Amino acid sequence: MDNLVISNIRQRPGRTLISMAGVALGVILVVLNTGLVRGMLNERINRERGIGAEIQFTRKGSSILSPSSVMSLDTRYSERLRQIPGVQMVSPVGRYVQSGRTGIGVEQVDGIDFPSYSAISGLQIVDGRIFENANEVIVDEFKARQGRMGLGSTIEVFGRQLRVVGIYAPESGARIKMDLAGLQNFLSAENKCTFIMVKTDRPENEVPVQQRINKALPGNIVLLTRDISEGFGRAIPGIDGFVRAVLSLSTIVSTLVILLAMYTTITERTREIGILKSLGASKRYIVSVIEKEAIAISAIGVVAGMIIALVAGWLIERATTLQLEYHWSWILIAVLIGLSSGALGALYPAIRAANQDPVKALSYE
Amino acid sequence: MTYRVGKLDVHALRGVEVSVEQGQFLAIMGPSGCGKSTLLHILGGLLQPTSGRVIVDGEDLMAMSDAARTDLRRRKIGFVFQRFNLFPTLSAEGNLRLAEHIHGNGLPTIDDKTRREVLKLLRLENKMSHKPLELSGGEQQRVAIARAVINRPAIILADEPTGNLDSENSTVVLEMLQQLNRELRQTIVMITHNPEAASVASRTIVMRDGIVVKDY
Question: What ipTM, to 2 d.p.?
Answer without folding.
Answer: 0.89
